[in-house]
Specification:
The chain is α+β, with helices and mostly antiparallel strands. It contains 15 helices and 27 strands. It folds into 2 domains: about 140 residues, Glutaredoxin (3-Layer(aba) Sandwich); about 325 residues, no CATH class. Helices cover about 30% and strands about 25% of the residues.
């Protein structure tokens, strides 16, 4: 009986320890950047999941090495989420290339693309010095009750290598997962409105921007409201590239919407430049627009200058460099009127973003305004810029001048500014009853704490369009069709939507930086044989050493 007691006690102790470990779970994160520690906002969100949430990943099977790193980090993070959610999250891994029937694979891949999941065609060097090419689906699908949501985890940027793009995807994993869970748990999304009636960008011009917004908010297109309170149901409103003047009653509606806590995103360029005329005739007249917003913006602490920003850091445009009588030969050349704007690294809105593609932007001058207003520049020119006064002729012949020969004495001209705080009304001490047409409303001379974003480029949210199968289809926002590069416009506008929705904690997740610890591939290649032998022989030698020591110990102890 005594012989059985000790094993029974040991077995009981093991069972108790395992049960306690399940109740008091903890992990230690010893990494410098705390990459395996969930943020406070994520932990709080996971505590609110009331019923099972299913997450399906599509990185199963044999995939290139870089995406294997993404899969490993994703699976590790999802396990942290499962623990944090008390196992209310179920994870399913699917291989889009799995199955024995090729037809079944094609149907599955087509189904994923219909859900908005973008595949990546990857050609990567393998460990043997060769190349592999495969269609990869770096995305997840969430299912909660009767709602589903698909999220692309990888943003392809031709300015970076696949490895760098994967590193960025890994750094944003917690943001993508937390934002997706936040969005799918919302019983009702907040509402946003795009205003029209002054020649703003139409629905086709902002199709990709609207698609990005739909992840976080319901989007409506409205004519310019004239009644106070018409905008109250919306969390924020968007004004994108107006071309006609605002009436005073329309400005009053916007003012009182801001005063009661509404938020506004204005993408306004006070200078008109006709890109079509430039393409057809080789030149266009740049002249000031009369938008009638100057006095209102001035009261809010901002002024948009009637100038065009020229920047040495700029996009390329194709120019016919063939001699007369010869076939056209187009050569990409830098165009200083299309700056690649610099996101401010200190701002949550623009941290870790790549350059922003712009066309004929102006610049913003922060004015005094009220003491209660806080302003942050999140988008600016490079350190080598200048301004061109208007009216003036903009000609493609200017492109023949080398930008290095043009003096660019100005640095970091503000193009995007975010303002938050309590705004003074632009209509204080004015006959608001007369301006409103006799409407009965409570005039607010000072706002509740709120936010306003101003970008001095109305086209920054405009996507190009291409004709396919007889219909015009939008290209990705920020995509330059001449160089086939995609810039950071979409990510910036998504960040701005989070900022205007008050999701600062999600913004902080997106601004997170994880420093990759990569192997020295040159050393790995040169020491390949040594590393392989060490990995094979060292465990065997260690096992023999431990076994030999144990055998000698037993012989010494029991040999007496």
């Amino acid at each position: 009986m005594k012989k059985l007691l000790r094993p029974a006690v040991a077995l009981l102790a093991i069972v108790i320890i395992n049960l306690a470990a399940q109740s008091f779970y903890f992990r230690l994160d010893l990494t410098a950047d705390r990459r395996y520690t969930l943020s406070t906002v994520t932990r709080q969100l996971l505590d609110t999941i009331p019923s099972p949430l299913y997450i399906k990943t599509y990185l199963g099977g044999d995939i290139p090495l870089d995406f294997s790193r993404l899969r490993l980090n994703l699976n590790e993070l999802l396990e942290e989420y499962r623990v944090g959610a008390a196992y209310q999250i179920e994870v399913i891994e699917e291989d889009p290339h799995g199955g024995s029937k090729p037809q079944r694979q094609k149907e599955l891949q087509a189904s994923l693309m219909r859900q908005g999941i973008r595949p990546v065609n990857v050609q990567a060097r393998d460990g043997q010095g060769g190349y592999t090419e495969k269609l990869v689906f770096p995305a997840i699908t969430l299912a909660y009750r009767d709602r589903t949501l698909s999220v692309n985890l990888y943003q392809e940027n031709v300015m970076r290598s696949v490895t760098q793009n994967v590193d960025q995807a890994i750094a944003e994993l917690e943001y993508q997962l937390t934002a997706a869970i936040h969005d799918i748990l919302l019983p009702q999304k907040p509402r946003a409105a795009m205003l029209h009636g002054h020649g703003e960008l139409d629905a086709a011009d902002v199709a990709d921007f609207e698609q990005t917004l739909l992840r976080h908010a319901l989007v409506s297109h409205l004519p310019a409201p004239t009644r106070i309170g018409d905008l109250d149901p919306f969390r924020f409103v968007i004004i994108a590239n107006p071309q006609k003047a605002f009436r005073e009653d329309e400005k009053l509606v916007l003012d009182q919407y801001l005063m009661q806590g509404g938020r506004i995103l204005m993408m306004v360029n006070p200078v008109h430049t006709a890109v079509d005329s430039l393409q057809k005739a080789g030149q266009t007249l740049a002249y000031p627009l009369e938008l009638n917003l100057e006095d209102q913006l001035f009261r809010y602490g901002l002024r948009v200058k009637n100038v065009l920003v020229q920047d040495m850091q700029c996009a390329l445009v194709p120019i016919n460099t063939a001699l007369a009588g010869q076939p056209a030969r187009f050569t990409p050349m830098p165009w200083i009127y299309f700056p690649l704007l610099t996101p401010a690294p200190h701002s949550l809105i623009s941290r870790n973003l790549i350059p922003i593609y712009s066309r004929f932007p102006a610049c913003i001058e922060p004015t005094g305004g009220a003491d209660s207003l806080q302003k942050q520049v999140f988008l600016a020119s490079s350190a080598h810029a200048r301004v061109s006064p208007v009216p003036s002729i903009v000609s493609l012949s200017q492109i023949q001048q080398n930008p290095l020969d043009i003096p660019m004495p100005l640095q970091y001209l503000p193009v995007g500014v975010a303002v938050q705080g309590r705004f003074p009304s632009a209509f204080e001490h004015r006959p608001v009853r007369t301006i409103s047409g006799g409407q009965d409303f409570r005039f607010r001379p000072r706002s509740q704490p709120t936010r306003l974003v101003l970008i001095a480029d109305g086209r920054i949210a405009q996507n190009e369009q291409v004709r396919r199968n007889g219909t015009l289809q939008p290209l990705p926002l920020g995509f330059d069709k001449y160089t086939q590069q995609t810039f950071g416009n979409k990510a910036l506008l998504e960040n701005l939507s989070l900022y205007l929705l008050g999701q600062d904690q999600l913004l902080s997740l997106r601004g997170r930086t994880i420093k990759p610890r990569l192997l020295d591939m040159k050393n790995v290649h040169e020491q390949r044989t040594t590393i392989q032998l060490a990995n094979i022989l060292l465990p065997i030698l260690l096992l023999l050493a431990v076994g030999g020591a144990w055998a000698l110990t037993r012989r010494y102890r029991y040999g007496r």
